[in-house]
Design brief:
about 525 residues, about 30% helix, single chain, glycoprotein, lipid degradation, hydrolase, about 20% strand, EC 3.1.1.-, alpha+beta, Penicillin V Acylase, Chain A, eleven-stranded mixed beta sheet, PLipase_B-like
Length: about 525
């Protein structure tokens, strides 16, 4: 039985500003939207009312021509200025989580050195490769990042400055999941000594997200959705809409709509709607092969950097995968789903190349066209590698014998639930309901465990509950995607009121949750870029 999906109306609490560039100096004027500036935009601070903040930024709409790097710097500057409070508060929660109890004491120092070495390497490569299309686009990502820091510095929250490392940590937090093991090998768990319940908790806390692409039987529509799994401390959400008019001829997408967080220039979830017609999502896979972490070096590009370059440059899934394979860091090892909406003609045909699936681990990226699977009805993703080479090299095969179905691509709980219930999706409401699904008390495939469902809730487990689980859902379809639109909800699922909404009261009140809603009882919000 499906639940009723509601869409919330969002009250407006707009803050606007415009960035200018004169005499080689950037300046900002709050309260003004001026297309003749380098960048202008609007931030809507509504997270406590709807669960989401929204940010709309445009750059390059002036009659005067500026260098692409200046435009991207200005866009970052504007974001850092408008969202300085949210950046500081989110960083507080991230640091409490990343460097808190149970984490290696040397982790921060190790990360700082890695990020410094990696940043030096990138900037050196930019100098060496000024004519390379790839590195020219990466220079835009670097300029955007530099501008973000400068914008915050121009408007520090309560006068509190932040360091470059703080912004590196925020943007690389997905990569940190693997960097800890690469930099501190002794922190890698002994999976062989884990009990079944310990392994299940590890799988949930380190394998992030569920996603689904659903094609209706008559090709009437395609739905594309993603539910993030992470610590609830990371629920400081901003849905972002970027529109950049750039002159670089190697860029395929200039407008981007995506779920994100303060101080983070990528999605992290990931969930992107791109102006190139591509839709991107990912779920995180684990690496049980400890030897692979020895190949992680700072002379590489982190996942967040490669994803941004691929989003800018790629016009199809194959190219997107090839770009992701450039200087693979082997960190934030995911299965990426790339849907090319240009290859789908509703009620007519789905062409080859419509669905491209890419999987990354250290030393290896495997990429392929999986349109044939999609045309059978659906493509699911749930933290188990699809490609046999990735599955085996990651050592899933070596651990599946002991730990069973949750490490099986075909028989994991979510594989069974998606296989059973995807045919019930007939419209957007039923798609949203499936992506919020968690009926663990009655579903035989969940076996009474709230971790074994599409939208998990670790806070509801009877043994060692933690503030971790499915913290959001985002979804779009073909028509909405052409308008850069989606539905999004923040918070763990209540499954039609059967479970209590998550709250920072009670046993989790001492967990850092600065700036976050006290209770997550929100509805879906309709996300659409502003006409500014």
């Amino acid at each position: 039985m499906w639940c009723c999906t509601l869409v919330a109306s969002v009250q407006k609490n707009y803050i606007s500003a415009t960035v200018y560039f004169k005499n080689n100096t950037y300046s900002i004027r709050p309260g003004i939207l001026d297309k003749e500036g380098l960048a202008y935009g609007v931030f809507n601070d509504t997270i406590l009312k709807s669960g989401w903040n929204t940010l709309n930024i445009r750059a390059g709409f002036s009659n005067q021509k500026y260098q692409d790097e200046n435009l991207m710097y200005a866009a970052g500057y504007l974001e850092g200025f408008l969202t300085s409070q949210q950046i500081y508060q989110h960083l507080t929660n991230v640091k409490a989580s990343t460097f808190g109890k149970g984490t290696p004491p040397q982790l921060q120092e190790k990360l700082q050195k890695f990020f410094t070495d990696q940043d030096d390497w990138i900037r050196g490569k930019l100098e060496e490769n000024q004519e390379s299309p790839f590195w020219k686009v990466l220079s835009l990502v670097v300029s955007h990042f530099d501008g973000l820091q400068a914008g915050y510095a121009a408007n520090p929250y309560r006068g509190k400055p932040l360091e470059k490392f703080d912004f590196q940590l925020l943007n690389s937090i997905g990569d940190v999941l693997d960097l800890q093991y690469a930099l501190i090998p002794e922190s890698i768990p002994d999976w062989n000594s884990m009990s079944q319940s310990e392994m299940e908790e590890y799988l949930v806390s380190h394998g992030h997200c569920s996603s689904l692409v659903k094609l209706l039987p008559g090709y009437e529509d395609v739905f594309f959705a993603h539910s993030s799994w992470f610590q609830y401390q990371y629920s400081y959400r901003i849905y972002k809409h970027y529109h950049f008019r750039l002159s670089n001829p190697h860029i395929s997408a200039t407008n981007f709509s995506f779920s994100s967080y303060p101080g983070i220039l990528e999605s992290l979830d990931d969930f992107y709607i791109l102006g190139s017609g591509l839709l991107i999502s990912e779920t995180t896979n684990l690496v049980f092969n400890k030897t692979l972490y020895s190949f992680v070096k700072p002379e590489s590009l982190l996942a967040w950097q490669r994803v941004r370059v691929a989003n800018f440059m790629a016009a199809d899934g194959k190219t997107w995968g090839n770009l992701l394979d450039t200087h693979n860091s082997g960190t934030f090892n995911n299965q990426y789903t790339v849907l090319d909406t240009k290859r789908i003609k509703l009620k007519e045909m789905v062409m080859d190349g419509a669905l491209w699936v890419i999987e990354q681990i250290p030393t290896l990226i495997v990429s392929g066209d999986q349109t044939d699977i999609l045309t059978a009805g659906y493509w699911p993703s749930y933290n188990v590698p699809f490609y046999e080479e990735v599955y085996n090299l990651s050592d899933y095969d070596k651990h599946s014998a002991k730990f069973g179905d949750e490490l099986s691509y075909q028989l994991a709980s979510r594989a069974k639930i998606f296989r059973r219930d995807q045919s019930k999706v007939t419209d957007m409401n039923s798609m949203l309901d499936l992506m919020r699904y968690n009926d663990y008390r009655h579903d035989p495939y969940s076996q009474g465990n709230p971790l074994h469902s599409i939208c998990c809730r670790n806070d509801l487990t009877t043994e060692n509950p933690q503030p971790f689980g499915c913290l959001d859902t985002k979804a779009t379809n073909i028509t909405m995607a052409t308008r850069m639109q989606a539905y999004a909800i923040n918070g763990a699922p209540t499954w039609g009121g059967r479970y209590p909404a998550f709250s920072w009261t009670g046993r989790f009140s001492n967990v850092s949750h600065v700036g976050l809603p006290l209770k997550y009882d929100f509805d879906f919000v309709f996300m659409s870029p502003l006409e500014i």
